[in-house]
Amino acid sequence: MIDARGSVPFLTLGEIAAAPSLKVAAVVAGDPARSITGAHTSEIHDPGRWFEPGSIMLTTGLRFVGAEDDAGLAQHLVASLRGAGVAALFFGVGVYFDRVPVTLVAACRAGAFPLYTVAAEVPFYVVENFVNQSKVSPDSYQLKRAMRLTNDLLEAMSHEDPTRALISRLGATCRGTAVLYEESGRVVESTGEGPVHLIWNEVQHGAGAGAFDVGRWKVMARPLVLRGNGYRLAVASRNAGVVEDLGEVLLETTQRLLGAISGINQLAMSRERHEGIQLLTALQDGIPGSRELRFWERMRPFRFEPYTRLRAAVAQGLDNAPLPPALVPRLLEYAGRSGLGLLLAESGRTPESPPGFQAVVSESAVLDGWLQLFRGEASIGLSEPYGDLAATPEAFREAETAAGIARRAAASGAGREAGIVRLDEVDPVSWLLARRDSPREADKLARYVDALRRDPGLLRTVVRYLAMDMDVARTAESLFLHGNTVRYRLRKAEELVGGRLSEAAVVANLYLALQEEIAAEHAARVPGDRIDKIF
User: Fold this and answer.
1) How far is CA 480 from the centre of its chain?
2) Both ends of the chain: CA-CA distance in Å?
3) Is there a domain that residue 281 lies in?
4) What percent of the chain shows pLDDT beyond 90?
């Protein structure tokens, strides 16, 4: 076809769609007479400004990986292409998607924007050569540069650690520094010699859109969200022109690639968690000793060394509430980062199973750091250390016992380690009370002090007396009573329980029956053992 300008030949959209070698199929058909000025591949988020009017954009849909249901993303792309005068969008199927995402189809139909598919066996360069070699007008320098930058960054996707490789390539491309921060300011990955802490200070204090200066460095940054967590991405260079000219496209492209990496990592993590749950379930059901070595080998990918010491763990949300949504991902991330062996399966999906999880974890030097993540978030009980995988079912029974103690400790706030209980550190009384198997046993203890509970003042005096190590003077001082009054009340209590408070058996019975109240008294003590503020 001869363009309206008179002499430059252009293909039409109809001619391209009809070419057998291109294997193009219409999803939203365009005007077959529309002149096409060129064809180029792009995976950047806002490609419109890089295309000359009348061009065809080719894409594999990388920007939609993990965001195929994002109608806004599809609408933004179509609006950008339409605003730039792009003639049509060609979507390569069989790379990231077997068919065009429905949100993109809907956006093209709503905007009457031409959309075609390119068969998986047809490389994009075939389409580009078919179109571009048919016209004599020069390619846009800016467009070619953007495509080159995109392809260079895309190569990082095949690296063993794609996030690190991507940030490294980003820094090399801007001939300076690239850094990815968490919202807290922690550096996730960085490259180059730029002042990463000074950059963060400017970003944190609201450096505006566009480029800004940090000493001799020109910087550009943007926020992004990956799997619900906030991050900041920044590039910096001593060559201000590089940042001002390339900063936006580099940040935009890197943001989309990080989204794709995050989606891929999420898929890998989901697969690993599924395998871990299957392995944990088999251990909980019990395995014969003859298969122990095989199971140790299956546990290697989860950072367990054969025949090392383990603990079973049972965790629950506070007050039987669901676990905080971010807790389990933090636990898994910490384990992966620190090398802690961990098999974990969430529970709480039925009325009989309280919200929480069960786990097998390595008894290692980094376990304490992992347990710190529970503070104020959940309670957890751990079995005694063990090394025989066949003993896992018994270890989980121990962990359940410890979890019961942890729940009561978390509820009362008793002690610095409240809510985190290792069974091997539990005193015999707490252990015995936690192993009560029936309401009948609990009722037996309750009936022993039933007469005391009918007199709140008397009960309070006995509890305080036991909490004060059976010291009458300290008990009287803390209750603002005369010592003789305390002695009178204690004698009255002896009559009700049928024994003297100087007898070991009576004291043991009272301690068992009133253990939670006594523990709460200990937890409420202030310096000098003055706890009268409670009353």
Assistant:
1) 52
2) 95
3) no
4) 29
